[in-house]
Structure formats: structure tokens, C-alpha cells
Amino acid sequence: xxxxxxxxxxxxxxxxxxxxxxxxxxxxxxxxxxxxxxxxxxxxxxxxxxxxxxxxxxxxxxxxxxxxxxxxxxxxxxxxxxxxxxxxxxxxxxxxxxxxxxxxxxxxxxxxxxxxxxxxxxxxxxxxxxxxxxxxxxxxxxxxxxxxxxxxxxxxxxxxxxxxxxxxxxxxxxxxxxxxxxxxxxxxxxxxxxxxxxxxxxxxxxxxxxxxxxxxxxxxxxxxxxxxxxxxxxxxxxxxxxxxxxxxxxxxxxxxxxxxxxxxxxxxxxxxxxxxxxxxxxxxxxxxxxxxxxxxxxxxxxxxxxxxxxxxxxxxxxxxxxxxxxxxxxxxxxxxxxxxxxxxxxxxxxxxxxxxxxxxxxxxxxxxxxxxxxxxxxxxxxxxxxxxxxxxxxxxxxxxxxxxxxxxxxxxxxxxxxxxxxxxxxxxxxxxxxxxxxxxxxxxxxxxxxxxxxxxxxxxxxxxxxxxxxxxxxxxxxxxxxxxxxxxxxxxxxxxxxxxxxxxxxxxxxxxxxxxxxxxxxxxxxxxxxxxxxxxxxxxxxxxxxxxxxxxxxxxxxxxxxxxxxxxxxxxxxxxxxxxxxxxxxxxxxxxxxxxxxxxxxxxxxxxxxxxxxxxxxxxxxxxxxxxxxxxxxxxxxxxxxxxxxxxxxxxxxxxxxxxxxxxxxxxxxxxxxxxxxxxxxxxxxxxxxxxxxxxxxxxxxxxxxxxxxxxxxxxxxxxxxxxxxxxxxxxxxxxxxxxxxxxxxxxxxxxxxxxxxxxxxxxxxxxxxxxxxxxxxxxxxxxxxxxxxxx
Length: 792
What we know:
The protein is α/β, with parallel strands linked by helices and about 800 residues long. A hairpin with a 2-residue loop joins strand 15 and strand 16 (about 510-515).
């Protein structure tokens, strides 16, 4: 695997010679497909003697290892003087004369590398290099030529490779150190917990077979270490090049960091990085990624390699504080620095979107469109269902476009005309809704006429931006511009897995390209790695998650048994309560009695989960009136991180009084929180957690109705997943014990029983409140006697 390496010419040039600043305004609106189309057009118009897409490669020796420096020349032809001309085609919205000097230098440096290799291989004393620049907005083509001798180009390439060699030496030396430590690495926590060895073995075998694994491992299995450890062992055996640990929440990224720290105590040597979101890690009060406003963006690439060299030689675990420390020292953007460090890391811990999001994914790893020896470890992967729908959907409103028009004012006549054409398209859609007397209309086909006008507008804005960098409202313009680019990007994926809907909302018209089924797009992304491990504590039914998250016929599924003593958890179904919307008022008194009965059997900390804030508020008021002496907390609709921390801090060990937290199913407290021991001894889940009926859920239902699975896929399974997650808060390790109370008679029906994991088979259906009280009392009695005996 590592006997010979490829060094892409473009990446070589960018890494060693890139200069200048970070500038958010330098974003091209035309897509990869559009760029390829323009290339083909120019190549075709060049005539029959024009050879196109010529692969070029040269074997070299660096650090006593064979490497292939390679690239692909856009064109090769002979001019009227019979001289060989190497052509490099570039496209952008900006006029040729407005291109930054640093950008032009990069273009020429790339084609100089082609010239160096080709002139040597063909024994040419000199060669003509041509840069063909296509301005997308005007379709103007500018051609410039330079003549170089083989000697000049050879020296240039040798200089590049000599500078690059020290980085290769560093990388190879590190691999030796890393692999030696991985070979000797033992499981960091001594003995495996029940279920951990099975999971670790399953992960290891999946990596060796280069397949995908969908695994359900109950809460407390220790999924993070059980997936990371075997992946790292496989890396030490040269079965993996890089590991991506992907999460949906910040808290789970911290768990991965802790696992690395635990293995570091066992002499592990790896370089790992945690990527923090741009807005969170930015040093500025208000993020503005332009050299005029941000000293960390100005001249970033002039200082990058010096800062990168120091941090890579000084640190191994690149957490947020470490990155911020070196970013401040070298005056570098901390976010961009973290991305540049990641190229040299063995383990990248980051959010899902850095792999799956079509706009913000890590292009430096995934832009080549080929499978690499990466391992994706996807934590709490049930979250990826909704997250992927969001990533592959995009919306645009008339309000945004109108704001853009107002920001640019009357002086920008050419832009205003194009904006008006987009507004006209949106007005027609508005009139269509009025004529149909509907505020929501969906259709399977995209609105191509709108996409066409948006493309014209974004091209013009791209051309306009370089000349208007001092505009006070520039940030607002950029925000809307990027929203339009995102909309156009999503249009590239549009097919029969999508629908478009038009919605009149808040006095504006919204157009959304809505991804109904992201499975095939996730499959494409997962195919960029040779192994994908998707795991969750709530992956029932496994067949559903395998299908919806991009599994193939060859994908594997596995379920780890519950690792904890079954007698430690009492799972009860209150079959006498109906919590459907129509029955909520009628069942309120019985519900309050049931919740009161639950907490009266043992003093301690409890969480009550509700499907909506409205229902939560209704029960909270009634419960408080019935139990005025009980301390109650309530989850607010929007809570800052510190507020969430203060909420959880009140769930203390060995509580002297009962505390109840009223929370929302699917919210921040129903997943990812870890209240071990007696910090939480009971959870009540009110209703089956069905998502509220809305237009998008109905579209999903209608899409899967063709398979007879509409209601199940749109409502039942997403609702049950929230229930499983909330229930998983109670038992966190082998010493924990507690009660999970399911308050809704639907939980006892076959439709819901089949959506429950195997370790819920002990769930006991309670026909009356008296039965419920007796079961909870009996559950706690022996434990109370035991605790009393220990004290005596």
C-alpha cells in the first residue's frame, strides 16, 4: 500500500507555492460540471490537431522512496512555427485583468510543472506554455503564452520537490513511529466490558473485508473505544490510511478525544485533530473572512507553512485550545489552520457535514472522486437520517432576493435587472399559489426557469464582487449569494429522489428542493472510503437504517446484546393511558397520577419526556399543582450551552430530595447526556414521539407509500428512535439501576412492539395504575433493603 505514492502536481504546487490571503469573496458559482463543459467546449473548438486530457507522470526518488509526480494536461498542440504548446484552461467569473497576482502565479506554476516533465520526456530544448482563461460571465477567452527552456523548467520542478522532500521525510518518519506504537498498543481499559470485544472484532473484520457495517450497540457498550481501537490497530497493519470519526454533537467529539487520551496513556503515538465549526473558533467578534477585515486571513498563506511545521513537530493531539494557541502565535485563521493540519493527521474527529455535506465537505480529502483507504466511524448514526435530508435540500425565498436588491441599490443597474428577473420568476410562482388557492404546492420536477435565472445572477455577482470589496453591506450580500450558490449546488443532485415545493409563509414565498430519500447520495459518499462503520444505541429496525443510510446488498448488520444485568432496569408500559392529541385533556389526571406514583416509590432524580412543548407545559402546570413540594426543572425552547450545563449540574449524586426535569423528546437532554449512578434513576416517556404532522413529513410519507412503508418511515420509526434515546439515559453502566416508564397504550401494540430492540423483551404491560404502583415498589424494595444493610 505504501510502497509508492502519487504526488498530484496541482496539490504539490498549491502546498509549496501558494501565497496571499483567505478571501470569502473568491468563490466561484459555476459547478464542476459547468467547468468540465467549458473545458470540453474550448478543447473541441481548438481543432483536430489539439490533443486533450493527456496524462503525464514522472517517477522520482525522494527519501529513498519511489514517487510518481503526475497530472493531466488540458491540451497539447503545435503552433504555426511547429513549436509544441502545452495548454492549461482555467475558468472563473472575474475578468482576466482582475485576477489576483497570486492566482495567476498558481496557474503558471502548475503548467510549468507539466512543461518540465513533458520537455524532459520528449527531449525538447524549450517549450511554449499557454494559459487559456475563460471568463464565464462574458464568455471572453484570454490566451497568454510564455516560452521556457527545459533547463529552466527542470530547475523549477527540482526546487519544488526539494522543498517538498522535508515534508515527506517528516511524514514517513512519523508513520514508522505511529505504526510501531499501534503494533504494541493494548486495549486501554484492561478487560473488555461485555459486548466490547464482539464489537471490536466485528469492526476489525469489516475493515479487512472493506465493507460497511451497521451495528446497534446499546448505551453503555463503550462504542467509541470499541470502534476506534480496532480501527487504529488496522491502521498499524497498513490496512487504513486515515480514520474519520464523525459525530452529530460536540459532546460526542469530546468522548472521542477522551478515548484518544486514554490510549495515549498506553504509549499510543498518533496525530489526531478535532475540527471545530468556523463560527465557534473564529477569533473575531463577528466573522468576516476578508483580508481587509481579518488580520488572521490577510497573508494567511504567506505564514502557513512556517506555523504548520512548528505545530506538527510540537504536538500530537490538536484540540481546540492547541490550535488556537498556535494560530494566535503565527497570526493564522484557526479554522483554516485546523483544516491544513488535518492533512497530516491519522485521525480526524469532526461533524458529519465535513464528509457528507455537498457544500462544506473536506475537498482536500474527497475531491478526487476515488475510493481511498479511509475508515469512516459514524457515531450515533441514526442522526444522519435527518441531517442528510437537510444537507441535500436547499431553499430560497423571495424575501432574500428582495433584500439583495435593496442592499445593492439603484446604482448597480446591470445586477438589478438580473435580480428583477429572479423576482419575476418568484412572483409567477406566487401567482400560481393564488390561482390554486393553496399556500403549499409540491411537484416532482425542479423549477428549471428559476435555476437558470439564479445561475445568471450568481455569475454576475461573482464578476461584480472583486470591484466592490468596500461595500458596507458586503457581508449581507455574501450571505445571500452563498445561499443562492447552495441552492444551485443542490440542483445538481436533483432526480426522482427529490421534490420541489412552493410555500407561502410569513408574507413571502419559499421555494425548496427537498431530498426525500438521501440513501443513494450517502452511498456515494460512503464509497469514498473503503470501510464505513455506522453505529448507534438505537438502530432498530436495522433493515430500515441500512436502507435509508446508503447500505448495499453487501453491507453487514450486527446487534450487540445489552451488556448490563437485565434486572437492573424496570421497563413498564402503561396500557391504560392514551396520549393522542385528542385524548390528552381526558387522560391528564391519570397521567399525573402515574407520574406521581413513579416518583413516590423512591426519592431521586427523574426526567419526564414529552412530544411537544405545548404538551410539556400543560402537564408541568398540572403536576406542579398536584406536587407543590417537588423541585421541578423545565427545558426552555432555546438554551445556551451554559444554561444546559446548569440544568444538568442540578442532577447531583446522592440527592437529598426528589428532582424532576421536564424535557422534550428529541431535544438536547434526550440524547448524549451521561447521568451515571444515582444522578438519574427514572425516565418517563409520554407518547410514542411521532413527529408533528407537517408538509415535509407528509411528502416523505407519500414517497415511501409506494413501498407500503410511508407511515412507518415518516412517523413511527423516527418517533420510536426518540423514545429509545430518551430511555437510554437511565442505565449508563453495570452499577446503574432505574425505571423506564412508557406512558401510552400504543407501546403495547404489535406495530410498536416490533420496533423495540431485543433487550426490551422484558417490558411489562401494566393494565391499571395499581399494577404500575406495585411493580415499581417491588423493583425498589430489595435495593432499598440492600442499601440499608450496607449502611448498617
